[in-house]
Amino acid sequence: MSLPPPELRPGEAAVLAARTAARAADDGIAPIAYARVDSPVGSLVAVATARGLARIAYELENGGLDSILDDVALKLSPAIVEAPARLDPVRRELEEYFEGRRQGFDVALDWGLTTPGFRRRVLQECAQIPFGATSTYKQMAVAAGSPAAFRAAGGALGANPIPIVVPCHRVLASSGGLGGYTGGLERKRLLLSIEGGMLAV
Amino acid sequence: MPTAKRPVPHLPPFQRFLDAHRDDVLRYLIASLGRDDADDAFQETFIAALRAYPRLLPDSNLRGWVLTIAHRKALDVHRARGRNPIAVAQIGERADGATARAADADGPDHWERVRVLPARQREVLTLRYGADLTHAEIALALGCSEEAARRAAADGLKTLREELRDVPATA
């Protein structure tokens, strides 16, 4: 006598899983939600906690979705669900930014993926650089309270967990060179050109 | 941000766990409860799993664990049905195959007969053949011995075979 398991209808379990994930995010049972966001600089993965936006990752440059979420699971919590609706405000602001209709971001930020101390201060100073302006690694080090630590400032900016929204692309080398970028220099150029093409390169 | 490959064992993000086991859990719940009640029990199962998830050990048997939770949620539904005379009448109708309800549009199947077996036989057969758990995993889920699980499965199958003999071959 054989008892084959019940057959599932196509997509049936996926729909239920999506509904469960959305409910978990809405009710606060899952503290962390993520969504994929398409953009002119490639596919992004956005991750938010109850505090705010904690991560924007260039999907390809960071080893893909699994690798990005593994990192968040390790550093914050594995209670992570895909809940696109929770990331709607972020998605909307990014859209407006890329369409040239927004110069600053209003979504709350969660700094939980940054290293407390100097590195976090550098990123928080960086978040103050206005649209269309640029700064230097040296100036960031000074603003964060350690004028000599411009290399460490570069390291902190290179590890920026929330690029675009925390505009580390606005920080250039003191020599006038482009410096580095977490998403590759092509993207740095593109973001700066969106903000007014004030780059002399 | 650098994504260093760390050898530290850690739990996968919950979404990956959900995606990996959603089909197995739904199949099991449909076997145990039928489609009508499987949807709610599915959500209850994974919500309960999520609440406990961050405290799990990274090398846990995640599949066995979530199916054990699904089993407990199914048990709640079966107990509620046991307290509800209307539900019992419906099960009785379905068990003798005389009434086809709209919810059973897929046609009556062997799982409907499993659902009205004695509780322990029903539990073991749904976990063994609906969820593909081993007898050892079933023993863990039910808190019984492996031998008891094996025996209940054999008894359940025997009952089903006998019922099958008594049913005219017109279906």
Keywords:
heterodimer; A: 201 residues; alpha/beta; Double Stranded RNA Binding Domain; Arc Repressor Mutant, subunit A; 4-stranded mixed β-sheet; B: 171 residues; mainly alpha; Butyryl-CoA Dehydrogenase, subunit A, domain 3; 8 helices; 0% strand; globular
Task: Please summarize what this structure is.
Chain B: Residues 19-83, 116-162 form the RNA polymerase sigma-70 region domain. Chain A is an alpha/beta fold and 201 residues long.
Instruction: Output the radius of gyration of chain B.
Output: 18 Å
CATH class of chain B: Mainly Alpha
Order of helices and strands of chain B: HHHHHHHH
User: Any low-confidence stretches of chain A, pLDDT <50, length ≥5?
Assistant: none
Beta strands of chain A, count: 6
- Which sequence of strands runs across the widest sheet of chain A? 3-2-1-4
Quaternary structure annotation? heterodimer
Largest interface: A-B, 44 and 45 residues
Q: Per CATH, which architecture of the largest domain in chain A?
A: 2-Layer Sandwich
The CATH topology annotation of chain B reads as Butyryl-CoA Dehydrogenase, subunit A, domain 3
What's the total count of β strands of chain B? 0
Question: How large a portion of the residues of chain B is in β-strands, by DSSP E?
Answer: under 5%
Question: Count of helices of chain A?
Answer: 7
Largest sheet of chain B: none
Mean pLDDT across all amino acids of chain B? 84
Order of helices and strands of chain A: HEEEHEHHEHHEH
Can you tell me the CATH architecture of chain B? Up-down Bundle
What is the fold's blueprint, element by element?
The complex is a heterodimer of chains A (201) and B (171).
Chain A: H1 12-26, E1 32-37, E2 44-48, E3 53-58, H2 64-75, E4 80-82, H3 88-98, H4 118-126, E5 135-136, H5 137-143, H6 150-158, E6 171-172, H7 185-194
Parallel strand pairs in A: 1-4, 5-6
Antiparallel strand pairs in A: 1-2, 2-3
Helix pairs in contact in A: 4-6, 5-6
Chain B: H1 14-33, H2 35-52, H3 62-83, H4 85-95, H5 110-115, H6 119-130, H7 135-142, H8 146-166
Family (chain B): Belongs to the sigma-70 factor family. ECF subfamily.
Domain RNA polymerase sigma-70 region (chain B): 19-83, 116-162
Organism (chain B): uncultured Solirubrobacteraceae bacterium
